[in-house]
Amino acid sequence: MSSKVTNRIALSVIILCAAVMAGILVSLLSYILFKGVTNISWQFLTTSASPFLAGGGIKDQLWNSFYVLIITMILTIPIGVSGGIYLAEYAKPGRLTSFIRTCVEVLASLPSIVVGMFGMLIFVNYFGFRFSVISGALALTVFNLPVIVRVTEDGFRALSLHQKEGGLALGLTHWHTIKTILLPAAFPSILTGIILSAGRVFGESAALLFTAGLSTPDLNFSNWNPISPNSPLNLFRSAETLSVHIWAVNTGGIMPDVSRIANGSAAVLVVCVLLFNLFARALGKMINQKFSGK
């Protein structure tokens, strides 16, 4: 068999695999959006859910999803970026570094249901946070932390060595070189990875089943006192997120329009995750163009 024939066969297989993956994705998204988009309305997005009656919406669940995500990223980004900088710039080859990398890899490979059980045992029961926003955010921090560490480390390692050497040659300290030269240069890739991980966290459900809870109080959006039980900002109230709501409605929903709520909620969730991904790509491209001067 000639090299040209082999090349054509390999190219055909690669194109076929890409087409199959794209076809599966398009089919899945098309099915979810086709079934759910017609059920989305302003009333659906701004009405509280009803456990028994028809006509309920997803207002509280949608807010909980974004609120848990924001708290998670506030907890995750400083720790994850610091860990990635340590592994990329300070960690020396040895047993300690190998142990840290192993811990990061193990955390990254843990099933989300295991993280949820861990969160229930530690945050819900041991620390007494109960089913709450903070319990869910801490569990998702454990779930998301290795992703941010890897993104940061890869962003720093992708930089040219001359940038670091140039800063040190000018008499800057190692930390000042990282702060003023390396971190701004790696910022586009780090930010893109953070936004992509945010989309992953937004659609997570298994880790939140055992930490954030399966219910939410009727939130009063005119009361922003963080210690009020029905305040949207209360960190210690139960917080059923949109993904958990979809699971609960499909498995035990008894409202007459259960299919409408499930399909509409799934469509909203998919649209939000798509927007996260598209925004990450657009922002990353814009920042790269700005830094490269094109």
Automatic annotation (TrEMBL):
Keywords: Cell membrane, Membrane, Transmembrane, Transmembrane helix, Transport
Subcellular location: Cell membrane
Entry-linked InterPro entries: MetI-like (IPR000515), MetI-like_sf (IPR035906), Phosphate_PstA (IPR005672)
Chain ranges passing through the membrane: 9-34, 66-87, 99-123, 129-149, 181-202, 261-280
Keyword Protein biosynthesis included in the entry's annotation: no
Stored SUPFAM superfamilies: MetI-like (SSF161098)
Record Pfam families: BPD_transp_1
Domain ABC transmembrane type-1 residue range list: 62-280
Record family assignment: Belongs to the binding-protein-dependent transport system permease family. CysTW subfamily.
Protein name: Phosphate transport system permease protein PstA
Gene responsible for this protein: pstA
